[in-house]
Design brief:
transmembrane, DMAC1-like_dom, 89 residues, DMAC_Protein, Distal membrane arm assembly component 1, transmembrane helix
Length: 89
């Protein structure tokens, strides 16, 4: 006779870097936002001085927007806030 298969292992929750440390998230997220502003201003300074729009300038602006998005994600901490909706019949 065959034995029943073992129950599936539960998925461990993903480790959060800052756990519930609100001040850690605010400080690091703000640092990312300020660095995004710095990179963006450096790219804008080149454009304001009449320089041509090069791929490097575009890359700086894209990198700055990525830093800003990362800073907002660190501050808002969306991981673990969404709950799985179970459909009840």
């Amino acid at each position: 006779m065959s034995a029943s298969p073992p129950p599936p292992a539960q998925m461990p929750s993903p480790p959060t870097l800052f756990k519930s440390c609100w001040s850690c998230r605010v400080i690091s997220g703000s640092a990312l936002l300020f660095s995004a502003a710095f990179v963006y201003q450096a790219a804008r300074r080149t454009l304001r001085q009449g320089g041509p729009t090069s791929m490097g300038t575009v890359a700086q602006i894209v990198f700055a927007s990525g830093l800003a998005a990362w800073g907002l994600v660190v501050i808002t901490d969306p991981v673990g806030k969404a709950t799985k909706q179970s459909k009840e019949t």
